[in-house]
Amino acid sequence: MMQKGSSFSLESSVNGYFDDDGRIRRTGTLMSASAHIITAVIGSGVLSLAWCFAQLGWITGTLLLAVFAIITWFTCLLLTDCYRYPDPVTGTRNYSYMQAVKVNLGGFSYKLCGISQYGTQVGATIGYTITSAISMAAVKRSNCFHKHGHNNGCHTLNNSYLLIFACIEIVLSQIPKFHKLTFVSIFATIMSFGYSSIGIALSIAKIAGGAHSKTSLTGIPVGPHMSGMEKMWNIFSAIGDIAFAYSFSLVLLEIQDTLKSSPSENKVMKKASTIGVGVSTLLYTLCGVLGYAAFGNDASGNYLTGFGFYEPFWLIDIGNMCVVLHLLGAYQVLIQPFFAFVEDWSHKKWPESRFIEKEYYIGSYSFNLFRLTWRTMYVILVTIVAMIFPFFNSFLGLIGAATYWPLTVYFPIEMYISQAKIQRGCFTWIWLKILSLTCLIVALLAAAGSIRGLAVSVSDFELFHSMS
């Protein structure tokens, strides 16, 4: 048996079909990893940044974008070294974020990470479903405004658009593994540049056209239409929205697992993280700053839909469709690790089940009845929840608050301290702990604001009657 195993290993290595761990050879590159990151980062969060600036003002809004970008970039660099253990270059591979947490921090942290990661991924897919429906409805509204005039409300129910998005996701969800998403990510990245560029261009055109929207260094002022308490809650919610805009660490190691082994994965991933965070921050800054300059303190929660009241309507339609096409791909980039977790657990739990194990082939395409059934049910359940809770800004803020501290800050820092064997009480240990604690406090404030926003929205909401 040993001779047979050795022969297989040697033959595999010679033919180049398998990597050092016996899995099919990885082919990911700096470009594909950067595309995955940009797809995961630039999501529906970018659409709420003008609203965030309206709550925070020029100074705090710009500062928070920069701070979250720097913290995210720094902790991502720490996280890339956790792909292999104990040595970041020659150690054993960790195929997922949860596996890295387990080998570095132990069982309790592993369970806590699973709750945080998969709960966040599920929440993000709900947010993406809501956002896509709003953008599809915005296309219909802008066409209605163009045809009937802006005095017509042109309101429409979102449920039909939620169902359209769900039907497409059911098909895309049959892509079997994360490694097969490269084309989807590249296409989604192009779409993200498309709608961000359209939003930026429309903002510039609105400003150049003589718009003098009221802005402020500190955001919407306290007054007859905004109490001090209301402003405080909105600020907390805006912080959560910005955090959500940078929440991609939960799939970073899964992205890293797609890379070729030479050059070393951590070096390539550090470059990809720098590119991804850098490009995203540039687009975020432009969208937030120019969107706030164009709409001022009246900026809506989804600033691209705000252009539905203006011409050229066809360009706004293109921008909103780019949002939908991007989120179709982003949904898959975020949820594939959760799909893999459930399916791996099921394979181990019922290894003899033909329903779970049997693969069927139609030409070069393979499908599995268990994968088809459970992934379809997942998309359906997410869509139902999106119909019940279609509250864009508060929902994004809550996801961001729940995600950012544990997955972007706490676990990367704790794993780095463990793997690098940093001594308790030394300078590096102290400032890393202070950074983690500060981010925790910010996350709790953001969560409080978002929960309060959801509570207010629910009080005025009619079940399954979401309108745009």
Automatic annotation (TrEMBL):
Q: Where in the cell is it found?
A: Membrane
Membrane-spanning residues = 33-51, 57-79, 181-205, 232-253, 274-295, 315-342, 372-392, 398-417, 429-451
The segment(s) forming the Amino acid transporter transmembrane domain are 27-454
Q: Name one GO biological process term.
A: amino acid transport
InterPro entries of this UniProt entry?
AA_transpt_TM
Instruction: State the superkingdom.
Output: Eukaryota
Q: Which UniProt keywords apply?
A: Amino-acid transport, Membrane, Transmembrane, Transmembrane helix, Transport
Q: Has the keyword Cell cycle been applied to this entry?
A: no
A cellular component term, taken from the record's GO annotations: membrane
Q: What is this protein called?
A: Amino acid transporter transmembrane domain-containing protein
The species is Lactuca saligna
